[in-house]
Amino acid sequence: MPDLRGKPFNLSEEEESWVRNTLKNMSREEKIGQLFCLIQRSDDKWRQEADAILKYRPGGIMFRPMESEKVWMLSRYYQDNSDIPMFLAANLERGGAGLVSDGTNYASNMQVAATDDEAYALTQAAICAREAKAVGGNWSFAPVIDLDYNFRNPITNTRTYGSDPERVARMGRAYTKTIQEQGLAASIKHFPGDGVDERDQHLVTSVNMMECAEWEETYGRVYQASIDEGALTVMAGHIMLPSWSKKLNPELHDRDILPATLSPEILNGLLRERLGFNGMIVSDATTMVGMQIPMSREKAVPRVIAAGCDMFLFTRSFEEDYAYMARGVEEGVITPERLDEAVTRILATKAALKLPVKKEKGNLIPSAKGLSVIGCKEHKELARKCADEAITLVKSDGTLPLDPAKKKRVLLYLLGDMAGYGNLTGGMSGYFREKMEAEGFDITLFVPKEGMEGLMSPYKEVVNSYDLILYFSALATKSNQTTVRIEWSFPMGANCPLYIASIPTIFISMENPYHLLDVPRIKTFINCYTNSREVVDSLIEKLMGRDDFRGKSPVDPFCGRWDTRL
């Protein structure tokens, strides 16, 4: 059984008694219910959905972003109708917008890291906490402390603090410290570490191929920093780590190696014993393909808890997965001791967050007056300040700063117009165009013309019509997308940078820092890391020479290629 007085719980005698007494008085069915963290989406049938969820008395709910008033209302409903206070979680990675759609999109992790100042990670966490607490949130599925070693990885990218273990460790530790000081539990993720494989654990069981010593110096070091800081929870990924699985269990054959969510070697041998983590482990979403490939779902559901996870995130079909879990308990796949250990850690985490005391006093959810902090002017100003320090001039040929008196006629190419993971924002290209026109530029939006070889627009027609070409790219990584490469337009890559030898050309990447792979000879390239209004505002100031570029790239934007540096 876990040490409830020790790190990260640090419970008082009274709090420990609540955990022990609550566990003692729970039925087996109630214990099984606590193992689940389900999902709440926004729709008109929220009351029916909430009542159906509450019937099973789950340990927690994870929200997808919806309007703050609805989240606040749902949070009250869940807590008012639960005997044991519930976890109310969200992906609080970029700001309050991870929970409430009208919240602040402060910055992606990579934008924060580009400041190379952990003070911005402290602010990131503080904004997440303030806006989440206003609607009752108490559990942050963040920080992401993966290392973005593979520029082809379609899911890590700007969700990470970069590829430097020292910088990632500093940023992750700062976020963990602040979010928990503000009364939310951090969940460092995705153990044992994404970002090596170019595949996505949403779609396949991915692999971290590092050898043991290299892993210890990189991912191990990063996780240890946040564990030492007192992170209450760890999210285990559907990621295999063969070197450590085999070291901890030499009897394993390759075919027997399992992702962390199903692996006692990784969860117990590596995370608990070697790294000394005493807190609560939650699985990543169990609807991901990465968990479902190794074995049938009937076996996998109880195996997640038996292997060492304490909470089971999401379900494919709640009734079916609950039945699988209950059968696993009945048949001894999950022993009584293991069930009690998992529930003890769940309850201890709730006690560490003071949820039982808050429930008793009736203040688990603050009054509606607190909603005014969500998306407030102060938070947006802080987002702008972070952008000022983060936007990175990767390379330049002297075209900057811009002056409409010298280069007035601008051809604008748009590549996508969505934000990153979770699609928190989008539509910033229109705002960018308005801002540039307000500066005095004549902007023409590129539209491909019909016609193949022999019938295309004359080269000189473009050269004689424009003084400057701007690319505004908002292509970003997202779940179920296996590539983040640029897909060029027909005919014959009509929107490729064809005129760089004749017209000054600037490429602005709002999200993905690796686009030089596809536009290697672009001579002026800018990485912004977050597609938001505050970033656009800051970007314009820098393009016009009224502010300097100060960002320090957290990754190799040249993708290890020589031609991208030309």
Overall 3D geometry?
A: globular
Task: Describe the sheet with the most strands.
Answer: 8 strands, parallel
What is the annotated CATH architecture of the largest domain?
A: Alpha-Beta Barrel
Radius of gyration: 25 Å
* Mean pLDDT rating: 94
Content-based structural category: alpha/beta
Helix percent reads: 25-40%
CATH superfamily of the largest domain: Glycoside hydrolase, family 3, N-terminal domain
User: How big a fraction of the residues is strand?
Assistant: 5-15%
Within the CATH hierarchy, at the fold level, what is the topology of the largest domain? TIM Barrel
Number of helical runs?
19
How many structural domains can be distinguished in the coordinates?
2
Weakly predicted, low-confidence segments = 419-425
Across the major sheet, the strand order is: 9-7-5-4-3-2-1-10
Total number of beta strands: 16
Broad CATH class of the largest domain? Alpha Beta
Beginning-to-end CA distance, first to last residue: 59 Å
